């Protein structure tokens, strides 16, 4: 389920030490503040792929203050990545129990549920995230809902969700990428080209989209454009699976 959009993770700075005038007195630790800082550090490490360090920070946060929902959600994500599905489920449920109104927790829990094939439950959590009018990134939840629907075998619903994502944010790269792939599968190659072009105006294309661009232009009979995509893919991602697929597509059958 690597297509599912990831949640944004925050960066913390450092804890401050309180000093008093006169003789130094032992200060009582502020466990809630320490838990907040360890949670932010843990989420930052998790976003950088440093899962063991992240887990240590988040477990410490939970020891300091068990009521920090984001710490439990972060542990849920880490356990999921480590294939501890029961542990992930337990932590996500704890996070939801503590703060079921947090749209980011609902979105991330929905991603987890979809990865486990629980498409209806996942979709329900995306919709709960979207009910929160203060949610700053609704395009992310709409895109995740669309990917979930696509995995569930409902491409029409997936397309509707991707289009809602683009209504919320016309420049949301995840939805543009998904729409390009969806249009290609529908054999609407001009539509696929249009979404690929919109994506590349915002950011360099990853290997998956460069391969899709090659296939799209070849389907349209534009060998020059297909060749340009192939050059970019080989140059930028020579060791990728997509580059290996490209070489097979370019090799004439014996």
Describe what this molecule looks like in 3D:
The protein has about 250 residues and is mainly α. The chain folds into 3 domains: about 30-100, Serine Threonine Protein Phosphatase 5, Tetratricopeptide repeat, CATH 1.25.40.10; about 100-170, Tetratricopeptide repeat domain (Serine Threonine Protein Phosphatase 5, Tetratricopeptide repeat), CATH 1.25.40; about 170-254, Alpha Horseshoe (Serine Threonine Protein Phosphatase 5, Tetratricopeptide repeat). The protein contains 13 helices and no strands. The protein has helices spanning about 30-45, 50-65, 70-80, 85-100, 105-115, 120-130, 140-150, 155-170, 175-185, 190-200, 205-220, 225-235, 240-250. The chain is elongated. The two termini are about 35 Å apart. The model is unreliable at about 5-20 (pLDDT under 50).
| Net shape | elongated
CATH C-level class of the largest domain: Mainly Alpha
Low-confidence sequence ranges = 5-22
The percent range for strand residues is under 5%
Alpha-beta content class: mainly alpha
- CATH-derived architecture of the largest domain: Alpha Horseshoe
Helix content range: 55-70%
Q: Rounded to an integer, what's the Rg over CA atoms?
A: 22 Å
Topology:
Blueprint: H1 31-47, H2 51-64, H3 69-81, H4 85-98, H5 103-115, H6 119-131, H7 138-151, H8 155-168, H9 173-185, H10 189-202, H11 207-219, H12 223-236, H13 241-250
Provide a concise account of the structure shown:
The protein contains 13 helices and no strands. It has 254 residues and is an all-alpha fold.
């Amino acid at each position: 389920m690597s297509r599912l959009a990831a949640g944004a993770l925050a960066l913390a700075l450092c804890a401050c030490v309180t000093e008093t005038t006169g003789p130094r007195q032992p200060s009582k630790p502020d466990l809630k503040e320490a838990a907040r800082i360890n949670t932010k550090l843990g989420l930052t490490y998790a976003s950088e792929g440093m899962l063991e360090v992240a887990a240590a920070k988040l477990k410490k946060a939970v020891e300091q203050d068990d009521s920090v929902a984001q710490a439990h959600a972060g542990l849920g994500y880490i356990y999921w990545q480590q294939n501890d599905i029961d542990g992930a489920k337990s932590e996500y449920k704890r996070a939801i129990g503590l703060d079921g109104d947090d749209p980011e927790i609902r979105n991330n829990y929905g991603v987890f549920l979809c990865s486990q094939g629980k498409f209806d439950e996942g979709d329900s959590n995306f919709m709960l995230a979207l009910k929160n009018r203060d949610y700053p990134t609704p395009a992310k939840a709409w895109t995740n809902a669309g990917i979930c629907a696509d995995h569930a075998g409902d491409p029409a619903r997936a397309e509707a969700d991707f289009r809602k994502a683009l209504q919320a944010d016309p420049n949301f790269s995840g939805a543009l990428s998904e729409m390009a792939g969806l249009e290609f599968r529908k054999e609407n190659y001009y539509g696929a080209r249009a979404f690929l072009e919109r994506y590349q105006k915002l950011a360099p294309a990853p290997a998956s989209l460069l391969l899709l661009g090659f296939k799209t232009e070849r389907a349209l009979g534009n060998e020059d454009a297909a060749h340009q995509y192939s050059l970019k893919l080989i140059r930028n991602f020579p060791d990728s699976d997509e580059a290996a697929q490209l070489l097979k597509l370019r090799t004439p059958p014996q």
